[in-house]
Each structure stands twice: as structure tokens, then as C-alpha cells.
Amino acid sequence: MNANPEFLAANAHVDEAAIKPLPNSRKVYVQGSRADIQVPMREISQSDTSASYGAEPNPPIYVYDCSGPYSDPAVSIDIREGLAGVRTPWIEGRGDTEVLSGLSSEFGNERLHNAELQSMRFPGLVRQPRKAIAGKNVTQMHYARQGIVTPEMEYVAIRENMRRQEYLESLKNSGPTGQKMFELMGRQHRGHSYGAALPETMTAEFVREEIARGRAIIPANINHPEIEPMIIGRNFLVKINANIGNSALGSSIQEEVEKMTWAIRWGGDTVMDLSTGKNIHETREWIIRNSPVPIGTVPIYQALEKVNGKAEDLTWEMFRDTLIEQAEQGVDYFTIHAGIRLAHVPLTANRMTGIVSRGGSIMAKWCLAHHQESFLYTHFEDICEIMKAYDVSFSLGDGLRPGSIYDANDDAQLAELKTLGELTQVAWKHDCQVMIEGPGHVPMQMIKENMDLQLDWCDEAPFYTLGPLTTDIAPGYDHITSAIGAAQIGWYGTAMLCYVTPKEHLGLPDKNDVKDGIMAYKVAAHAADLAKGHPGAQIRDNALSKARFEFRWEDQFNLGLDPDKAREFHDETLPKDSAKVAHFCSMCGPHFCSMKITQDVRDYAQAQGLSEQAALTKGMEVKAIEFVKQGSEIYSKA
Amino acid sequence: MNANPEFLAANAHVDEAAIKPLPNSRKVYVQGSRADIQVPMREISQSDTSASYGAEPNPPIYVYDCSGPYSDPAVSIDIREGLAGVRTPWIEGRGDTEVLSGLSSEFGNERLHNAELQSMRFPGLVRQPRKAIAGKNVTQMHYARQGIVTPEMEYVAIRENMRRQEYLESLKNSGPTGQKMFELMGRQHRGHSYGAALPETMTAEFVREEIARGRAIIPANINHPEIEPMIIGRNFLVKINANIGNSALGSSIQEEVEKMTWAIRWGGDTVMDLSTGKNIHETREWIIRNSPVPIGTVPIYQALEKVNGKAEDLTWEMFRDTLIEQAEQGVDYFTIHAGIRLAHVPLTANRMTGIVSRGGSIMAKWCLAHHQESFLYTHFEDICEIMKAYDVSFSLGDGLRPGSIYDANDDAQLAELKTLGELTQVAWKHDCQVMIEGPGHVPMQMIKENMDLQLDWCDEAPFYTLGPLTTDIAPGYDHITSAIGAAQIGWYGTAMLCYVTPKEHLGLPDKNDVKDGIMAYKVAAHAADLAKGHPGAQIRDNALSKARFEFRWEDQFNLGLDPDKAREFHDETLPKDSAKVAHFCSMCGPHFCSMKITQDVRDYAQAQGLSEQAALTKGMEVKAIEFVKQGSEIYSKA
User: Which molecular function GO terms apply here (chains A, B) (predicted)?
Assistant: First the structure.
């Protein structure tokens, strides 16, 4: 059990495990149209192919990197100071915001002036909050609709491209085997995109169009200048979110910051702080000031703390104060459960597992207690006014998501989804950025219906799903029950997958669980990118497979999602360093190795005149392999 | 690293971890039409619902049980003696086999009379091998085609039904809430079966028809009377296989037996012994004599050992001797890579990862060295003669399966698959049971093509796939990359999923890895059963969800695939026993709990007249939720 130890800000320190660069990896930055657009990527270098496989160079590959400055040895990190505000000049440059003289929220001021909190409060430079000048709208969607390409848009375009063209071009010039390498690394299977329109090369203008259309969002609060912008939309790489947050029962501020830095190290594209215990205002400040990725929250959780857990005591006024409090801290997206209307609540009465979303059940309880329409729904345009003054994106919550296979795709869930579609139109009227949350527990054959209805009813606003879990019978393994569903819904068009850890339904995830959840979801997201046919997605698979085939063990580890784990597993059976350059593995042993045989095949094919054989089979259709048919006819006992 | 310690048969002992019944579980047997048909199931008992949720009884549920007599406290296990031969009277009763006076294989006799092996040899009662009387065919397919319903067929029919009808009927009589329980537990979403024909209730006659048609197999060597019969076919529950086996580099006989008992404890439906080190004949004997599940092997592995790893020295004669040696030990299915023809080999020359199947590369090397057609192909009918004399099932190997995303569904793979389809017809001519092995590494959008071609070309012979792995970039997590693909291909129609452990590509799996692999695959198989709409598949999900909703923690753990893990995870955050009866969990804490709120909703719904609401929404179509539309129109700022 995680105790809740006395936390002293003065003692806070960065997790050493979070700042070590990954093996053979180097942080590189691609510069955009202005000097201060420096887009980070991770370059993974590789060794040359050994002589027995052709002695060719293997140029480094480039992968998407969420880890921020933590993995850059040139940057010195002190979490008591927070990260630099890379976006500050962009935000200032637009001239549509003003720095306020103090916090606008009552609660924020209360916490700021509470002397008892001094020892745990984030000690870094206190930023004065920034807000849109009266009458201005500072959302990325607003700019996009005005035809403005922001630095954020250009940044994500460069980021999504991952230097693919440059990498492939460089292969051609990598020596005598350059053309072969170009073809090997660049080849990719045709995807099935289910209607996604994936451009061959991402441009800032395409990003702008997608945002203007509402089909993508860049969560980027003007009070979170520390973020490295990222984009969420069906025509971009599939993203994943990692949830962290303490509860009344455990974990400290230091632990939560560590979970965040740990999560982004392994590939969390955004992080949601779902804290429900005490001091969540202070915890959040620490997380945001140190986070290079967008931070999401569910403000109703904090609002509930303020009324001591009595949902019926919630009011619009104090919820509004909470939104402003968090918006001025820099939260990038808010889960708002405005789709649960009073009339939906009774639809859940005959469910197997009722309402499993915390936010959903809070609002359901409020509606019932007052027998009134939800204040989130009735005040939705008021909320839009706040969102657009700070550019907080909506994550319209699925408070009625199914908590069991039994409840999947039921009337309650779909009624809420329909409402979210209506609210999307309202938010878009205000140029607010919107994504839509989705289930939950759904058996495989019912997943696609979720995606299809969401695309239809929510007009292609990005879908952001929790799993879905494809069976209920495996507590302890729900990262897997849900990765199965996540890969599928990602393929069908979901833009961001909210991870599920092995502790789901059982307890609070610790750092190991966070990593396990992220790994399962990186796998799901990448499998979805491959299936959609995202340009360049296969490069990393190709590079790793080549390393595997050529027994470049270290490269195989380093090109993988988790070099540490791969190395550890390998070393359990073959611990000696020599084994890592050995041309065999522990499955077959040195005696016989299937990989080695392929070289014989190649030699043979060449000797037999592969070109003839290739000519014979060229154009061979899957449905009619002529020489096999012929084989069938000549089949006879020898 | 697992050493290869001196193994002494006299010291062999059953793994204590394998014989402990799972918590709140009891072995029950359902009797068939004769006294000696006793079909095992696991009964999981549950506690009553607490007063706050309605104080109703929750009758036990029944789940499929692969663990054999190990989990029956009434049976005393001594692995030095082996298991009882439950099928012996059935086999004898058919009167078409004879007990031989000795082993037919040269190698078998050599090992039997090698005094040096005495200390490690299985010490139990040495069974004289059994063989079909000359001219007889003893395959289950042969009986099925004669119209004979064997005890094995009846057994699997009972087993597949899992007492579903009896369970549901019993619910109705379980007190005042019986009808409600019947509806809650019995409800299941309509599946999408992709052409599978899943009968509402399994009958022995249906089993017979499926086997006669070649659409299902019961792997059941007459020399393996210890097995509890199981069936593999697209119209039955999706099964999983666990691979075990030592290599030249590690693990002992005791360890391999423990991996087998461990694998079946967690749900392995069959086990393949892929040993490649020394003493594989003796290891296999220990495994078979102690295994209640079918055992599969790849005989070419052992044949290769006999020629000291030199593939070109393999001959039909010594391969034939190996088949007979293993058939007389009781191996239930053989992977035979007869689909790799000489002409296919050059098709792999331009692959990223060449030939990754060990068996495939052995045969490719042989073909190249001799520039001859594979002897497995030319002697295929000779092999059939052996198979039908012992009822060993074919598992036609996919020696050219892709070892990388790059190589997925390529000409080499498909040429082999086509050949496997032709060989299926040949085997069926001999009434031999056949299943077809499948890939490998395949991105999601290309999985269905594999299934469709297999169904077409192999005329619905059961498909048995390794994964497929949906990306190459996650060494250390390939149980997950592949569970994603396995769930999908299982849904599309694959009958058995060969597990992949986290150690895939990296090292030999230990017991932890075996369990992790099995869990990922039990999840995939069950997700597939739900998606196909297998009758009754949802009962366990429903029961577990009800327990979860009612905070019956112990029941939630026990109904899951892995009660130990679920309990351990829960206790990490809330270790106190009291927490396991607490009506909250560590995610929300005692302060506020979403589950609790649903009770309020139910009370409210009742007070508001749920019946009206229900009437309002009854027949509500997904595409047109009227009251939501209405909500849209009345939307206005409050």
C-alpha cells in the first residue's frame, strides 16, 4: 500500500530513471520555419550488418518521442523549477491574450494564500495566469478557421512526418546497398483506412484544415506553454493517454510526478491527472509545470472534493470556479460529462453494472437529487466561453459508458453519444476544440458500431476511447482484454486510446503498471497505424525485423518499444555478452538455426536463376497460383 | 539461465502448485451415456448478494476445465506412475487394435535398451504399444464417416456444453429472484460468426458430422489413453495451445513436466513438446504419461537430432522411424511440413526474414541440398498410413509462415497454404484428421485474407495459427502483439490459437512466461467466442460483472481467469481482509463510489415509474433515438 507520506517541496527531485536516454538513442530536433520551432525526435542508431549477411551500413531511424527534455542530456532538469515555456513566444506573439494580475478563481486564491500548504506548493517561478483579451477567442480551432497556420500546427506537421522522407532519401545514398535498403525499409503494405484520409506527407496547411474542420485537435492551453504540441485526429498517428492520479487511499505528489515522467518516457502522448485525494490542486501544479505533454483532468472530481463528496451539493457556480482554477493552471483538456441528461439516467436502471464512470455517476446523482437537467448541459455554452478564453479542449465524457459486456451499446450509452454529437456542434459554434470519449466494455463484434455511430453523430470529432475491453473475465489482465479492442477501434478510426493497466478494477496502478499499460497501448496504437496504412508506419517494423534476421541483438532490443525488457528477457537465458553477437538464439541453440538457413536459400536461388523463378511467379494472383495447381496435378506417390 | 541438472526419475515429483484446486472451485463430472464417460468441469461457487444489493443467492457457474485429475483432490498424483487411462476401455472396446509385443521403431528400442538412460527413464508401468489391426483404420474421422458416434465424440459434446442448459434452468428455481437471475445470466449479445454454424446445444451427432466433414478433429492417439478428449473446429469453443520444450541450452525433464501441468492448470487445451535438446524421447514419455491433454510434436526436430543437426542427412527411412517411435509413445498430433515444395523455396529469397519456421528451414535446406522434392511431400501417403494406424492427427505445418510484417501474405506463404489444401484432400482420402497451421506476423488489415483463403483452399479443415503478431516492434511484449491478432483470427474462424509468450524472439519461456502467454490467449480465445456468439459464452462475463457490481470481491477474483493475480493486485492497495467485503475500491476510495450511485438510480427509476420510461424507449432504434432528438431541439441556455 502506498502511504501518503509528508511531502516536502524542497526535497522533490526528478526520477533518475526518467532522464536516462534510451540505449543508442539520441534526441534530435528538426527546425521549422522559425528558429524557435524545434521539433523533437528520437534517433536510434544501429550497427552495421555483419560480414556474413552482407556488411552493409544501417542508418539510424527516427521515432516519435513524447519524453520531452527529460531524455535530452543537454537539458538539466529540476522539477522544483519546472520546464521552459517553449510556446511562450508563440502565445505572446499572437497578441490576443493578457497576463492577469492574479488568479481569477476563488479556490485558486484560497490555496495560494493558505500558509499550511507552503511546504508542498510548487516552488518554481509562479506564472501569472494568461487569458484571452475580452472578445478574443484563442483556440487553435479559431485560428484555423481564420486561415492562420500557428506554430503549433507547423510543429505537429513536422512531428507527424518523423523525418520519413529525409530518412528514406538518405538510405539511397548510404553506400552500394543504398537502393536495396531504400526498398527494404520503405516498403509498406497497403492499409485499409475505413475512410481516414492519410496524406503521404503532412503539411501545416493540412493540419490547419483538419483542425478547422473539427476532425483534429491540438490540446494546448495558453497557460501550459511548456508543452511540445501534439495532434489528435483520425488522419494522424494514433495516440495514447496514460491516467495517473492519487486517491484518498494512497500515493504522494512526488509519486504522481514520477508517474508522469515515467509515462512519457515510454510513450504516453497525453496524461490525465485523475487525482481524487487531498491537495489535488497542488499536485496538479507540479504535474503541469513539469509536463511536456498535454494534461487532461476531470474537473468534477475536484468539485466533488470541495463539497465533501456530496454530489447533490454541487453547484454551477463552484464548478465554474473549478474550471477557471484549472484553466489558469494550464490544464489542456477537460472531461466534461455534459451528455448525461436527466432523461438518460433511468435508462441505466436495468443495467448489469449501472453507471461505472465516476463523473457520470456524480452527475446522475445530482440530476436525481434535484430532479433537474444537468447543470453541465444547461450551462454548456457558459463552459464554452471559459474554454475559448484559455484554449482548453473539450473531452466530452462518456458518463454512461458500459461497465460490462452485458451493458455494451445499450440505450443509455447511445443516447448519451447522440447528445455528445449535439454538444459538439454547440462547441464548434464557439470554435472550441472537441474530442469525444468512448467505451468501455464492448465485445469485438460490437466495436465497429461504436466507431460508425460516433463518426456519424459527432461529425468526425476525434474519438477517444477507453479500450474497449473485449471481455470481463480477466481481472489482472485488462491491459490485454482492452488492447485487443483498442487496436481494433484505433484501426476503425479512433484518434486516441486511453490506456488500461493490469490493475484496472483492482487497485491503483504503480509505476510498473503504468509501464505495462503504456506498452500494451503503444502496441495497439502502432498495430492500428499499420492497419490503416499510415505512411511510414512500417519503417520501424522493417528495421527491427532486419536486425532480428541479421542477429543484431542490440539493435533488435534498441529498436523495440522497451529495450530494457527485451535485453532482460534475452539475458535470462543467454546472459553472456558474447551471446548478443552470436548468430543463434536460445530457442534453437547454436546447433541449428532457421535464420542461418535462409542465407543458403538466397545463394541457391541465385544459383538457380532467381530471375526465371521470379518471372514465373510475377503477377501471380492470390486466387490462382498456377504452379501450385500444377503441383497438385502431378502429385503422386514417389 | 536454466541449467540442465542431472535428472533422476526416482526424485520426480508433482509440482505442488499444479495440484491445488483454484479457490472456491470444485471439480465436478458430468456422466454421459455410459458409466465411464465422466466429463470434468470446474464449478465455481459464489457468495450471496449482500443485503444492500438485494440479498439473493448466486448459484455456482461451470467453466471448461483443462487441468485433468491434477485439480481433483480425490485423485492422488504420482508423476512417476502417470495418469489412469480413461480411454482404455473405449479403445479396447472397438476391437480394431492390437497390443504389440514390443516397440516397432528402431530408435525406440535403442533407447529402451540403453542402460545409461535407466535413471531418467519414466519408471511407471511400461505400456506395450497399440496399433490398428492390419487393414483397420482407427481414426475418429474414420469412425465418424462410418456413422459411429464414439465415446470421445459424446465426451466432447458434453464438455462443450458446459452444463449451460442445466445451469440456466437451475437459476429459475433459485428463489424469488430466479427469473431475474435467469435473464441476467442468460442474456448474450448476438454474435457475428463469419459463417461458423454454432449449434444452440452441442450433440454427439453434431460432433460426428463435423469430424466426418473434416471441419473438426479430436486429437486422440490410441497410445494416449490418458487424455480427456477435446475438439478443435470452427464450430466449437476456440482452443489454445501452449508450447513447452527444452533446447540444447536449458531446462530439465522435471521442469518440462511442470510446465505442462502448469500450462493445463491455467487453460492450455493442448500442449506441444518442442524439445530440441538431448533426451527428448525420454522427456516426451514423461510428458505424455502425465498429460490429460493432447500432446503435439514436430517430429522433424527429433529427426534432426538423430543426424546431429545436418538437415541434408535426413532420410525418409529415419523420419518414418521417428514417426512410429512417437506414435507409439502416444503423441496426438504431428506437425508435418509437407507443404514446402522445392519450387517454393526460392520464393523466400527476397524476404525480409527468410524462413523462420525451424521445420520449414530444415526441409528447405534438405530440398536445396538434394535438389529434390521434399520427402514429406513425396511420401505423404506413406505418412497417412502411419497416422491412421494410431490416429495421430495431422497439423500441416506452415514452414513458410512470415517472420515479419514485411513478409506477410507473400507468394511463398500462400503457395504453401495452397499446397496444404491439396494435402488435406489426400489425408482425408485416408480418413486422417487434419488441421492447418497458420501465421505468423501479419498486420491487422491482412489477417482476414489468411482466414478466407484457408477456409477456401483447405475446405474448412481447422485452422491453427501462431498469433498472428500484428507488429514487430515490441520484443518482450509479443504475447500482446499476437493476442490482438489471435482474437481477430479466432473471431474470423480459427479453431485453435497457438500461444506466444513474452519471451518470443528472445529466450526460452519459464513458468511465468508460460502463464503470461496462456492468459493472453485465454483472453483472445474467449473474446473470439463472444464475438462469434458462441452460445453461453457470456455467462462467465455476466457472473463476474454482477460480482464486480455488487462488490463481491472474492467472487470477482474467483470467477476470473487468474484468481491469484487478481487477489494479489487488489491486496497491494487494500491489503486488509475487510477491504474485500468493503463496498468501495481503491480507485475511488470510501468517500465516493460510482457503483453505489446506481442503487440510487434504480430507486429513482422505480419511483419515477420506470415502466413508462421503458415504454417510451422500447423499440427505440439505434439510428433514431427520438427523445434525444427532442432534447436537441429544446437545447437552450438555462
Answer: 4 iron, 4 sulfur cluster binding; phosphomethylpyrimidine synthase activity; zinc ion binding
